Amino acid sequence: MTIPIMPSPSEQSAHTDIIGKPSQTFPLHCVQGASLQPDRLWTALRKWGELLGPENVDGPDTVVERYNPGALPKKYVTCPVAAVRPANRDQVVGVVKIARASGIPLHAISRGQNWGYGGPLPPRDGMAIVDLSRMNRIIEVNTELAYAVIEPGVTQRQLFDYLKSHQIPLVPDATGAGPEASLVGNILQRGFGHTPYGNRVLHAGNYEVVLPDGRVIETGFGRYENARAKHVFPYGRGAWVDGLFTQSGLGIVTRMTVWLLPAPESLIGFALKVPDEHQIAQIVERLRPLCLDGTVRSTVHIANDLRVISAKTSYPYWLTGGRTPLPDPVRQHLRRKFGVGAWNLMGGLYGSRGMTRQAAKEIRRAFRGLAPVFCFGKRLLSAGRWLAEMTERLGVRTPLTEAVRSADSVYRLLEGEPSDEHLRGVFWRHRAIPPDVHPKAAGALWCSPVLPMRGEDVLALLRTVTPIYERYRLEPLITFSAVTSRALVGVFSICYDPEDSVQVNQAEACYEELSSAICRAGYYPYRGMIPHCSDPCFWDVSPEVLNTLFPESAFCDST
N or C: the chain end with fewer CB closer than 10 Å? Predict the structure, then answer.
């Protein structure tokens, strides 16, 4: 059902210039969802257009087309009523003040590439999106103290290319979210990467934040105009408030300091694989002491066979006669074809040559009797690439080819270079994938529980989720990541073909049951789908904090 939204006669000409037609329609539930008054919406759109330029404002008629991920099950699709794209902090302040006066709730996104968790969509209907992608300045790079000051629109590729082109020997942490993902946005969701700075939120600070009443603050020592340590000591004095602005609607972060890793003398990647899926417990038990004593400082990722295979190919409908889920003989065939194990571990060693050499010895000793550890650096990868190219020219495709490609993609991430390769997995169940397809069109939902780094907890969690995947005829694409030295984050991918209504329904039901089951088992997700945020413990408290500080707040969760 739709309802016509008519501006007052005195405003019709202004609306025509800003958002097209003087009369628009959009779903009634969008209005009801935020108790919007249509005339207030039109007034806000006009004022935003005057502030930002009409090309940087989407009204109800265009916002859904631009920001709807498209492939999400309908249950998770919310309906924004507008989107605005400010270019600087002062424009953000203006946007917030207009929204507050109009009673329109805001949802801020850095670039909206929140894959697997709802993309750019707001948590509920009737909200306006504040898209910060135009705020993409690298304000400062300090080579001596190894940090960068950036805006929310700065991408992983942009910072990496800047450092490389200026020959600055600093390494930015990179995630598998792709080159165009926002650094600030991922940090605000407490995402993680691959380097020793992979737990990103702990290597950032000095947030510049626009509050719900339009005031601007800096966190930490940034509150003092002449503070010389604001970029290098995030805590400041008194309460450490940075965390309040992560996964919350307490403010819009418009600038941030991120720490960069000095390029090490030696960088060695290491990997191992095991043939038995139950050996995951032994991997975790042997890995934990290496993380606790500092032998391994990078984020370590442990992926099952299906997760690795999904980055190399899509679901082989041609081998299964169109049937799902994947039959075990086909799964074993794909393992052999791509040279992957039941579980596959990848990490990095950073430091002097002596340090990485000794760490590699310790890792090999730790996994002795379980699996051989493959260590690789630039020279070995270069030789491997040459050999793989020679065999391919001869028309011979060997497991070496896939091993070199996998090691090369991992090594680039360890060096801070973002890649699209690991995003391919979100298209696992698609029957047809156009070459220029965008990840927002992918059929994938991610569930991300946190668990202690113990083999017994990993097995308990797998016993919880495996029957659920089987019940809905879906494959468990799973990665466990050692984000801290004591905890793992599991990323459980639920993949489906968005053109297949049966698969879409299966994925939705699987996600709902999986989300409930892991919480009942005591393994709560560190992050959730934005339109699905309904945790009664936190969300009963967060609005109280927000409403106490800012009774007329217009904010909600940011990405």
Answer: N
Q: H or E stretch including 349?
A: strand 343-351
- CA angle in degrees (0–180, nearest 5) for 514-518-520: 115
127/175 same-domain check:
no
Q: Token digits for 187?
A: 């940090």
Q: Which residues contact 66 (CB under 8 A, 6 or more apart)?
A: 58, 83
Total structural domains within the chain: 3
What is the tens place of the pLDDT at every residue in 25-76? Answer: 444 445 444 567 788 999 999 999 999 999 999 999 899 889 987 789 999 9
- Torsion-angle region of 49 (φ positive above 0: left; ψ -120 to 50: alpha; else: beta): alpha
- The reply to whether 125 and 161 lie within a common domain is no
Q: 465 vs 175, 271, 277, 469, CA distance in Å?
A: 25, 26, 14, 6
Containing structural domain, residue 39: 2-131
Which of 18, 66, 72 lies closest to 44, judged by CA? 18
Given 98, 116, 131, the domain boundary residue is 131
Report which residue type is found at 373.
V
Instruction: Write the DSSP symbol of residue 155.
Output: B
Q: Please tell me the distance from the alpha carbon of residue 138 to that of residue 163, in angstroms, as a whole number.
A: 11
On the 0-12 / 13-18 / 19+ scale of CB atoms within 10 A, 204 is buried
Check if the beta carbon of residue 306 is closer than 8 Å to that of residue 475.
Answer: yes
CA distance 185 to 182: 5
pLDDT tens figures, 388-401: 777 777 777 666 67
Query: Each residue of 111-151: pLDDT tens digit?
Result: 988 888 988 999 999 999 999 999 999 999 999 999 999 99
> From start to end of 278-332, where are the E strands?
300-304
**Which residue(s) pair with 233 in the sheet?**
none
- Asked if residue 556 is part of any domain, the answer here is no
Residue 557 lies in a domain: no
Same domain, 211 and 243: yes
**Cβ neighbours, 10 Å, residue 540:** 9
pTM: 0.90
218: amino acid identity, one letter = E
24 lies in the same domain as 90: yes
Q: What is the DSSP string of 236-256?
A: -SSS--GGGGSSSSS-EEEEE
- DSSP bridge partners of 406: none
